[in-house]
Write a structure and sequence with these properties.
mainly alpha, 68 residues
């Protein structure tokens, strides 16, 4: 979808320098992906401490240890 928007050039340039992204389009797309990810994480955090844990964490950790 083609959309024309006015962007803050200073923000775009800072983002390009920080990320190494070359184009405005890629910067905007990365910004949108990051915004979505952060908001989704915030939604998940609302459940912190509210879900009941069932399992043995020590046992689960031992299953990852490979003995030679």
């Amino acid at each position: 979808m083609r959309t024309n928007i006015m962007l803050d050039e200073n923000l775009i340039e800072r983002a390009k320098k920080l990320t190494g992204i070359k184009t405005k389009r890629e910067v905007v797309q990365e910004a949108l992906r990051t915004l979505i990810l952060l908001r989704e994480q915030a939604e998940v955090r609302q459940f912190r401490g509210k879900l009941k844990w069932e399992g043995d964490l020590d046992e689960m950790r031992q299953a990852r240890v490979v003995e030679h």
